[in-house]
Amino acid sequence: MNKKPVRFTKHARQKFDDLAEMGFSVSEAQVVDAVRNPAKVDRGVYPPIAQKPVSKNHLLRVAFVEDEQSILIVTFYPGRISRYES
What we know:
Distance between the termini: 24 Å
Shape: globular
CATH architecture: 2-Layer Sandwich
Number of helices: 3
Radius of gyration: 12 Å
Low-confidence stretches: none
Strand content: 25-35%
Helix content: 25-40%
Largest sheet: 5 strands, mixed
Number of domains: 1
Order of helices and strands: EHHEEEEH
Oligomer: single chain
CATH topology: YaeB-like fold
């Protein structure tokens, strides 16, 4: 991914607080890094989902929409590596 500006939907902004309440803190920098430097991108779904490991057992999955001017983060969520990687 390139260095286009990254924007967040209102829903995505709320996810930071929602996940923190559940004990899974994620920073804005981690979300942006997952989109800009993903380990894997699933383009077989819409919107595409970028993913990147954030710990030994978990990865961060980020649904995004990209156009010529920017990248819009739709939502993001943690997942177990064992579920998403074979």
